[in-house]
UniProtKB/TrEMBL annotation:
It comes from Clostridium fessum. This is GyrI-like small molecule binding domain-containing protein. The lineage of its organism: Bacteria, Bacillati, Bacillota, Clostridia, Eubacteriales. It comes from the Bacteria.
Length: 99
């Protein structure tokens, strides 16, 4: 998870947390539950770390439509190094809660 305030300042590699999806809530271990709600979503084709243009477009869209955003952005690998050897074929889902 990335802090949206940091992302808006172009701090694109400042991660608040790393996350993984689980089936059941962990016991005796801290966890973050992604809030239910409406999310603005963009897909990044190419290297996972080259996300600046995608975030700019996502924030331009949320600002243009007068949405307030949640605290975190979630980046999830759809296609990564486990599926392809070519970073140009990576696909990343980026989502930010909107209100």
């Amino acid at each position: 998870m990335l802090d949206v305030a940091d992302l808006r300042k172009n701090h694109l590699d400042t991660y608040a947390y790393f996350f993984t999806k689980v089936i059941t809530k962990p016991k005796n271990h801290p966890y973050h539950l992604k809030p239910a709600g409406t999310y603005a979503v963009a897909y990044l084709m190419g290297n996972y770390y080259d996300s600046k243009a995608t975030y700019e477009k996502l924030f331009d869209w949320t600002d243009e439509h007068k949405f307030k955003t949640g605290k975190y952005s979630y980046k999830e690998a759809v296609i990564d190094e486990l599926a392809t050897a070519s970073p140009s074929e990576y696909l990343t889902k980026i989502s930010i809660q909107v209100f």
